[in-house]
């Protein structure tokens, strides 16, 4: 009896492993093809200042929506691209496409504030990322201060000393730097003094149960006042309700993004959020000295 049950369990286990390996292979094949044929698209989610609900930026989030195939999100494919080292190929495309789109909007007289893109920790480790960003800016003609790069706190910690030098090289280009998923990195906070970052993005796990959860409320308050003391702006991710919005604004949190405002949308829909470019801004402003 026990033996039979044991064998059954074993067979189930190997079968599910095989299925997992097969679907991984299928995904890998699909991703390689999508990279080759440039079938990825960027969707955009708006970032708002809480004080006046003014649009301050757009976060570009990559999507794979191929005709006839089920759409897949980055949470599913980014880890695989990181494993196979292809994330740098995707990263290069994302950087160019975001810069191109930003420049195109400016040329239409539309103001989006800044465009933020996400960098993978692998893009810190492999060189050339800063060179690639410089090239994308130059080729597109997007002013550097219109671009923001998001790096996760855990990704930065993983890269140790290398991260600091990397961030300084990027900052020297005139782009802004933001720490993504802030609060989840189990790090010493000492790095905040050394890293040239302008924004902390509070991870949505701290926002979800606001304002009711007293622990989360305390943590978010601490992050907001820490940002204020360090002169770094603080944005809350994952704001879904008016109660969260009101609470964060009452704390003096600078900005927010989330489904309460809008989920990520394709570029032609994101267009409707943009304001006319003020005459003073129509010509590229000089980047502030790093
Ligand atoms: P992230 O950078 O922290 O992006 C925020 C994620 O939260 C996005 O998921 C967004 O759709 C989702 N989100 C926004 N507002 C809400 C909300 O109110 N509630 C909830 N539940 N979720 C919300 P998405 O687009 O699936 O992206 C997941 C992650 O994949 C991103 O997290 C980022 O780490 C990564 N990613 C996305 N695009 C890129 C990319 O171009 N390059 C790299 N390296 N990573 C990317
Ligand atoms: Mg992000
Ligand atoms: Mg995040
Ligand atoms: Mg995240």
Textual characterization of the structure:
The structure is a single chain. With 290 residues, this protein is an alpha/beta fold. The protein contains eleven helices and eleven strands. Strand 7, helix 9 (214-230) and strand 8 form a beta-alpha-beta unit. The chain is globular and about 50 Å long. The relative contact order is 0.12. The chain binds ligand C2E and magnesium ion (3 copies).
What value does the average pLDDT take?
Answer: 90
Q: Kindly state the percentage of residues in helix.
A: 40-55%
Task: Name the hetero compounds present.
Answer: ligand C2E, magnesium ion
Task: Give the termini separation.
Answer: 72 Å
Report the radius of gyration as a whole number of Å: 21 Å
Alpha plus pi helix count: 11
Instruction: Please summarize the sheet with the most strands.
Output: 8 strands, mixed, barrel
Give the tally of β-strands: 11
Which geometry do the CA atoms define? globular
Give the uncertain stretches in residue-range form: 283-290
Structural class: alpha/beta
Instruction: Tell me the series of helices and strands, N- to C-terminal.
Output: HEEHHEEHHEHHEHEHEHEEHE
Strand order of the largest sheet: 1-2-4-5-6-7-8-9
Beta-strand content estimate: 15-25%
Organism: Leptothrix cholodnii (strain ATCC 51168 / LMG 8142 / SP-6)
Domain EAL: 24-278
Protein name: Diguanylate cyclase/phosphodiesterase with PAS/PAC sensor(S)
Keywords: Membrane, Transmembrane, Transmembrane helix
